[in-house]
Amino acid sequence: MVALDAVVSLAKRRGFIYPGSEIYGGLTGFWDYGPHGAELKRNLKNEWWKAMVYGRDDVVGLDAAIIMNPKVWEASGHTKAFADPLIECKVCHKRFRADNKDILSAHEKEHKETVSWTEAKQFNLLTEVYLGVTEPKDKAYLRGEITQGVFVNFANVVASSRVKIPFGIAQIGKAFRNEITPGNFTYRSREFEQMELEYFVKPGEDKSFDYWKKERMKWYVSLGMDQKHLRFRDHEEHERAHYARFATDIEYEAPFGWSEFEGIHHRGDFDLKNHKITYEDYTPWVIETSGGVDRAALFFLLEAYHEEDKRVILKLHPLLAPIKVAVFPLVANKPQLVEKAQSIYRELKKNLVVSWDDRGNIGKRYLAQDEIGTPWCVTIDYDTLENDTVTVRDRDTTKQERVNVSKLASYFSEKL
Ligand code: ATP
């Protein structure tokens, strides 16, 4: 299995993910996405939106505000129940989540002296913000999950669009949690992005839960996850969130153990009842699929990372790859080649994310593109000037084939 360190180092070196505010020493739990990371995340979100909204007749999109009236969080139960148990090591005063027994026993082993722990107390994860100009300022919260924005707009969406139950509202956006122990790279961050569907059904309807479980698993596999590295894990009754009728996680076999990727929750009528929202003469039930964009980015990077003959290759699905095609003139000092290569580059750039490289030799350029997962490299050589064909080199097989310049655009669009 790939080591997490190898991916952390590649992510930094190749412009995927940097520590947040790095020049000031960083800030625990915050990360910045570089040029390739920003593309990867954007691709993930686009694919999700295509599958969950554009590809369906029963789902519409929403983009709600991050900060909402604090009454939302009181009604939803978050000001009381959105908490993790926190305990402190009395020797070194480090704080931990009390429900993670493995980490606690690892910490105990770190000490020579016997560790004793404080009593666990509930620590609320909502991040407070203060608004307004007069003191005392008004307290509000950065949203701890994007879900509530959907519920509070349920009636607006019903009134302003043609949806009828069963239907879903999809949303992608930032959420914030004051996590006690951020860690495992971006896996547990304090700022992260979620992609969620809230699917509204008639009371008593449970079959959509199984349907969405299968759909979501299929989506990850369709984008290149090996089914062997994924599994469902049903929540036991005691670990279910305060709102869930049933809940299951899709987990990935990460270097730090099986870890949650996405939660599928049957929330019953808990939320709409809390907000006193009805539809016709009843309170709908809700099935939720709640995935993390950052966890998806991390797990797809881990899944794609390969080392072969000292070559690092990111075997990302072409739809997720930050750059689809790289264009090279065979050499940089032959104006005719460079001009031809530039015109091909400009043409492909109209419809695809394409990069240009004329540094060093071709071998080095291939290695650099392999490391960021570019599926195809196009080389313009002397034959191109004779017969208008180029070589297209495939990242995974390293095979090269000659393709006519006039067919290049359709060659790539057929593969994407
Ligand atoms: P965990 O048990 O790991 O704290 P959770 O069960 O509280 O997660 P949910 O509230 O179900 O998570 O959130 C849905 C999704 O949002 C998760 O599956 C995950 O992909 C993402 N997510 C939640 N918390 C974080 C975080 N701190 N950093 C990054 N992504 C997160």
UniProtKB/TrEMBL annotation:
Q: Pfam families under this entry?
A: HGTP_anticodon, tRNA-synt_2b
Q: Keyword set for this entry?
A: Aminoacyl-tRNA synthetase, ATP-binding, Cytoplasm, Ligase, Nucleotide-binding, Protein biosynthesis
Biological process terms from the Gene Ontology for this record are: diadenosine tetraphosphate biosynthetic process; glycyl-tRNA aminoacylation
Q: Does the keyword Hydrolase apply?
A: no
Q: What's the protein name?
A: Glycine--tRNA ligase
On whether 4Fe-4S is a keyword of this UniProt record, the answer is: no
Record-linked CDD domains: GlyRS-like_core (cd00774), GlyRS_anticodon (cd00858)
Question: What's one GO MF term for it?
Answer: ATP binding
InterPro entries of this UniProt entry? Answer: aa-tRNA-synt_IIb, aa-tRNA-synth_II, aa-tRNA-synth_II/BPL/LPL, Anticodon-bd, Anticodon-bd_dom_sf, Gly-tRNA_synthase/POLG2, GlyRS-like_core
Which parts of the sequence belong to the Aminoacyl-transfer RNA synthetases class-II family profile domain?
5-322
One Gene Ontology cellular component term attached to this UniProt record is: cytoplasm
